[in-house]
TrEMBL record:
Its EC number is 2.3.1.-. InterPro entries: DAGAT. Keywords: Acyltransferase, Cytoplasm, Endoplasmic reticulum, Glycerol metabolism, Lipid biosynthesis, Lipid droplet, Lipid metabolism, Membrane, Transferase, Transmembrane, Transmembrane helix. It catalyses: an acyl-CoA + a 1,2-diacyl-sn-glycerol = a triacyl-sn-glycerol + CoA; 2-(9Z-octadecenoyl)-glycerol + (9Z)-octadecenoyl-CoA = 1,2-di-(9Z-octadecenoyl)-sn-glycerol + CoA; 1-O-(9Z-octadecenyl)-glycerol + (9Z)-octadecenoyl-CoA = 1-O-(9Z-octadecyl)-3-(9Z-octadecenoyl)-glycerol + CoA; 1,3-di-(9Z-octadecenoyl)-glycerol + (9Z)-octadecenoyl-CoA = 1,2,3-tri-(9Z-octadecenoyl)-glycerol + CoA. This is Acyltransferase. The lineage of its organism: Eukaryota, Metazoa, Chordata, Craniata, Vertebrata. It is a multi-pass membrane protein. Belongs to the diacylglycerol acyltransferase family. It comes from Pyxicephalus adspersus (African bullfrog).
Amino acid sequence: MKTIIAAYSGVLRGTGSSLLSTVQDLPSIPWLSKSRVERHLQIISVLQWVISFLIMGVTCTVILIYIFCTDCWLIAALYVSWLVFDWNTPNKGGRRSTWVRNWAVWRYFRDYFPIRLVKTHNLLPSRNYIFGYHPHGIMCLSAFCNFGTEATGVSKKFPGIKPYLATLAGNFRMPVLRDYLMSGGICPVNRDTIDYILSKNGTGNAVVIVVGGAAESLDCQPGKNVVTLKQRKGFVKIALQHGADLVPVYSFGENEVYKQVVFEEGSWGRWLQKKFQKHVGFAPCVFHGCGFFSAESWGLVPYSNPITTVGKLLEIN
């Protein structure tokens, strides 16, 4: 019996050694490497924001209407009741969430390009500010990353300053999307909201306004820089009225993350874009980035070109 046990133990030891050597000889799996996994997480984090930007509001509206037609209509009715009660919250600075602004997904978002925020001046918490941001690009990716999240450390670089990224007021009329935007400290870009933040919300507030607006996205092309300022200088008047300091902000590389199909003046495509801009408030663009699995294919994933955001303080006495 002892002989049998000894022989069996020897076989097990031999098998263990064989298995260990076999595992060590296995080739590494490229898509499971740390760098590849991190890269895929970065792409997913950017893609989820792009999809949210493009279809989240419409999708949630359709789902809400559909729920009204089902046996769960009471849930939709309760949400709509809350929506009516909460309708003016975006106009009073919103409802930011430190937890949402510090999600790990935004750090992956930042590292995909990467996006960097450069501090050139100290900002006093005893003052209010208006950041005149340029360029708009296709989706204001760097503006969102820098001021709608804490990925680039805006609160650490400017202690006591609370940024409010201003965007189209129509976004806050869409269910769920409005709450998602407000959680990042995003507010409507209208006169009432900006007046409230600069006059009734204390000090240390910084309203970030993309001065060219959605119209500027029509001229967003790699290697091209067009500032749209005609009839868009009201932010300067507001700054003077409230004694807020102006901070011109420029993001180098924002126009390089997407390629746009540009319609010539007089073409039906350009005519349609201008009509949308005039009557709806935004300009539909035909653009593309790269694919999820290949930079050579077309897709919604932006190109991973570095973006550096820099500002310059202009004091108003």
